[in-house]
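Homework-ish question, so no full write-ups if that breaks the rules, but can someone show me the predicted structure for this set?
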Amino acid sequence: MTILQVKNLTKIYGKGDTAVTALNNVSFSVEKGEFVAVIGPSGSGKSTLLHILGGVDTPTSGKVYIDGTDIYSLDSSRLAIFRRRQIGLIYQFYNLIPVLNVEENITLPLLLDGRKEDKNRLQELLTTLGLKERAHHLPNQLSGGQQQRASIGRALINNPALVLADEPTGNLDSKNSEEIISLLKLYNRKYNQTLIVITHDEKIALQADRIISIEDGAIAKDEVIRR
Amino acid sequence: MNIVNKVTLKWLIMNKTRTIVTIIGVILSAAMITAVTTLISSAQNYAIKFTIAEEGDWHAVAYDVSSKGIEAISKRDDIKDAAVVKNSGYALLKGSINEYKPYLYIMELDDKAFKTLPVHLTEGRLPENEKEILISDHISGNGGVQYKIGDTLTLDVGDRVMGDGIVLGQKNTYAVSEDGEVLEKLVVKETRTFTVVGVCKRLSYRLENYFAPGYTILTKLNPQELTDDDDLDIYFKAKNPRKIYDIADSLQDIGENGLDYNSELLRFMGVSNIDNFNTVLLRLGAILIVLIMVGSIALIYNSFSISVSERKKQFGLLSGAGATSRQIKHSVFFEALAIAVIGIPLGVMSGILGIGVTLYFMGDLFASMITTNIPVSLTLSVSPLSIVVAALVALITILISAYIPARRAARVSAMDAIRQTTEIKLTGKQVKTSRLTRKIFKIEGDLGMKNMKRNRRRYRSTVISLFISVVLFVSVSAFSMYLRDSVMNVYENQKYDLLYSIDSKSLKDSTISAFNDILSLDSVKEGALVRYTYCDVKVQKEQVQGAWYEEKVSQGHISEGQDALVHVDLYSVDHDTFTDYVRELGLEESLFENPASPAGILVDKQHFFDQNMQKYRNTSIFDEHKPETLSLSVGYGDSDGKGNRRRTDIAIAAVADKAPFGIQDYAYKDTVLIIIDTGAEKSLFADIEPEWNGYMCFSSDKPFKAEEDMKKILSDAGLSSTDIYNVAEMLQDNRNLITILSVFSYGFIILISLITIANVFNTISTNVNLRRREFAMLKSVGMTDRSFRRMMNFECIFYGLKALIYGLPVSIFLTYLIYQSVNEGVDMAFYLPTQGILISIACVFLVVFSSMIYSMRKIGRENILDALKNENL
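A: Not a homework solution, just the prediction itself:
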């Protein structure tokens, strides 16, 4: 089942002489449960791609279908709702809300939806993420690894169609990096969670099912590692 | 310029909005300080001008100096503007109606003296030779003698001499013994003829005091004709005013009647030591300046503090590159100076402009309040000192504001700055909100509340400045509200606009006809001729209210069972007024037409300040059953027939709640009013003439026109016209005072509030800016614009509420204190300045919301992405 379909995606920043083409006519699709790593040098356009997939940036042209929905046909408010239900985003700098504790940060997409959290699911998530003892701590009382785990929790709480991670280990030491990747893989295997990770780290990329290399805004290579 | 300062300047330019808002704050604060200092210098200047207009433009005077003495003084280097006045003596004023002022008093002034002394021409011109004369309007107004320009006066001029040969001057009253025998006489020395060329206002008290026996007339002094016998006064100024006392000391023996100073003027000029006016003025100014400084420091400190915490990383990089903490500290002061260089000159200029415009519009109002006689208005006067002081105070304000942030910046270590680890650490407790918050306000409200709690420190200054503004605004509106009401309250009872007291005991025909003439004026609407006398009546216990009677007994005025004494203010009004009154009350006119039984109307209402209870009371004395007749005791002595005290019975035809036109509705304590028709006097007081006092009063749409018309009628009728009491004028003066106070106090509040607004704006916009990444994140996890706006709205509401929760109770408490202080003098109910409160509530939210909306709009324009990727904003 195709969960993500990208068609002729182009993104151009600026105008006229200063225009920079970040993405140039990119097309690909991802099946449900796939773990995709996107690699490429700095400025190749991989972050732009991820943000367009996540619905936080708009393409100059082209379409993105997630679970059959053309996300850029939605108005900004519908897109926001779609984002909180169907997309989980993980950033290099965690981007947790400083005034909310771990539990609240994780359940934020639910709270925004006005829904009650599923206690069992939350407990299970906290346990898996190793944050059970830290549930009532504020982000600044956590280590970087813990913060990143909390942001993974937030990305997963809604069982989204797609989890997008932008250099999730870029700010962490190797031990923490491994832990984070294991967690992501765990969810990918256990819940058949579709996962797209941008990374510089070849070790991480090699753990994925498929590696898409981007160069100069276009897909240079798209290779399946296993399966 | 060194590199650190260069970076600072670039930083200021980069953060344009905040820099501009900070500069605006500095401009406002410098403008307010300048306003205060220029107001002080203008007030001083006004006081000087006013004193010159009233007392004359001189520093000291030597009395009774010989012509040689005059020459000696005029030649001195340290003296300037010496003016000579010759006192030429008295002449009889034929037809003067003021029996204590039967003379004209002739003063001869040289050129300088006409400029130096306070001569205010109202008509015609100044005399050009010794044959021409300037008369004062007091001669017609008080003396009742009319001279016109062009009239020729032939006067027998001489000295007032007492029996023992002592010569009297203007400072000696008309010498009359107790039984009316004149003790002085006029010894004529010469006959002079003058032509009237102009009319001036009455001279100042110093030159013609209230009991002076002669109306001053002024002619030109011919210096060629001075002789050694002449009585000359010389008025002069010192080139250096501060030397005037030394100069005067050296001239001690030059005149025969000593020396005097224009001490008022010297005081206002700051020469004299005993200087109440300047002390009060300076103290008041100092208080205002301190208030302004506090308000401004809150703002300016806040902007520097924001700037420093934002520049922390920059400081870290600089110190990593080898900048010393001294250099970093200096860079904050440099930032302060850069802002001061732009802000202070602009502020000083706008302050001068602001006060200039204000005074331009209000100067006349002010002048008309102080005096109607002398045309001096409060105009802008900028002294170099006032500008220097204002600029210095503003600079000090800025440096104080920058001091703490600068020290904080200097303490930042390179590593901490780069890591930004010195930012306040949050604990869970700090941002704890109740479950109820989330229930009621949803996650958006909860987030808003948590954000407020997180930024408690940063927002403290916002909340404090909003608080100060709310308190100032509400209490000043309360103050002006109570002030206005108390003024209105005092004059409210007076239904008339103009009042003229009748001084004679019996009613003269001329008075009655003048009354009728005035009443027929177009400018007069209604009028009453009122006379009143005081009498007593004994009342039985059964006739009066128990409480009142008990009070008299308990106070020891009477013993139980005795008759009590009630005072009666008996008012006799002209027939027309009485008839109108009777009709207004719906009574039969026939009730009052029986000459055998004169009848009156009782008004039984008392309003007075009770010393024991320390408050105003409204009472009445008689019980429901109105007395049929009252036996009035009139005149002096006791009621047994000794003296001229008599009893007379008056029928009480009705009891009324109000008095007729021209009479107050209330009497003092233990007193009732009885109103009768003036026609009833004869039968009521058949065998006694009571001591009448009287007045006539009028209402008018054009009280000032009416006053002029009245004056003419009165002086034509040979009555004094100087003592018309114009209620409208009093009210006008009070209104002017209120307007002036309101303009200045509201102006002050508005400026303080502008500083507040700048402060709120800076804080909120910076805060929003710092949280860009957080907002972006919220959006990226799917917060819709709508719930985002909700969150921000909640945040605004919480800030506003916080300022109001502290501000309103304090302002209500202050309002109560103001009420209490006003209530000491005037009786009125406590009420809140609802309008002021509502306006302040609206403004608080308006300011908070608009700042938020502005800042949100600014960050709304940028992509979520840029914010997300940016690690350090």
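Now go work out the reasoning yourself. Hint: The CA atoms of residues 28 and 229 of chain B lie 65 Å apart.
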